[in-house]
Amino acid sequence: MTMQTDVKQYHAKATGLVVSYQTRLKSVVVTSGTSSARTFSICDPTGSKSGTYARTSPSGVTTITMTNHGLETGNRVFLDFTSGTAIDAAFDVTKLDANSFTVTTVATTTTSGNVTMYPTILLELDTYSTVGLPVLVPGEGILCRNGIFIGLGGSVTGTIYYG
């Protein structure tokens, strides 16, 4: 029996695209820089949509405006807030209409800006500790047909192994 040699490693310090081709996710190690709720998500990079968001203090309810978002109440998505002060994370959606939905964030400060939504989450991990969380994906791993997008909540880093 020979050792598998096609496994690659990527260390993520920020949300972003890792690869844009079909691969398998083999393992993940996640570390949070703070002892509070943080998320780490592996998403399909295709199907993302862009829009705007607004949150008014003191509410944690954030309204997302996105033309033809295609979501239903209860769907879970990863939101990459590309401007403003909202923190990237995975959220449960409450549909308002075909072009807007809300999510509830931990923060309650007033902010607004641009956001990109990733509707297909392949793996999601929650961390509440600064101790590294290793996760070995059993079998051949998770098939990521369209590549790997890593979504990191505030102060989270992660290393993925894929191939």
Helix content: under 10%
Rg value: 16 Å
Low-confidence runs: none
For the termini, the CA-CA separation is: 18 Å
How many helical elements?
0
User: How many strands, what sense, and barrel or not for the largest sheet?
Assistant: 7 strands, antiparallel
* Strand order across the largest sheet: 8-7-11-5-6-10-9
Shape: globular
Description:
By secondary structure, this protein is an all-beta fold. 0% of the residues lie in helices and 55% in strands. It has a 7-stranded antiparallel β-sheet with strand order 8-7-11-5-6-10-9, with no helix packed on it. Strands 1, 3, 13, 14 and 16 form a 5-stranded antiparallel β-sheet that branches. The chain has a 4-stranded antiparallel β-sheet with strand order 2-15-4-12, with no helix packed on it.
Give a quick precis of the structure:
By secondary structure, this protein is mainly β. The chain has strands at 8-12, 16-19, 23-32, 38-43, 49-55, 61-65, 76-81, 89-92, 94-97, 100-104, 111-118, 121-127, 133-136, 142-144, 148-152, 156-162.
Pick out its properties.
163 residues, mainly beta, seven-stranded antiparallel sheet, five-stranded antiparallel sheet, globular
Topology:
Layout: E1 8-12, E2 16-19, E3 23-32, E4 38-43, E5 49-55, E6 61-65, E7 76-81, E8 89-92, E9 94-97, E10 100-104, E11 111-118, E12 121-127, E13 133-136, E14 142-144, E15 148-152, E16 156-162
Antiparallel strand pairs: 1-16, 2-15, 3-13, 3-14, 3-16, 4-12, 4-15, 5-6, 5-11, 6-10, 7-8, 7-11, 9-10
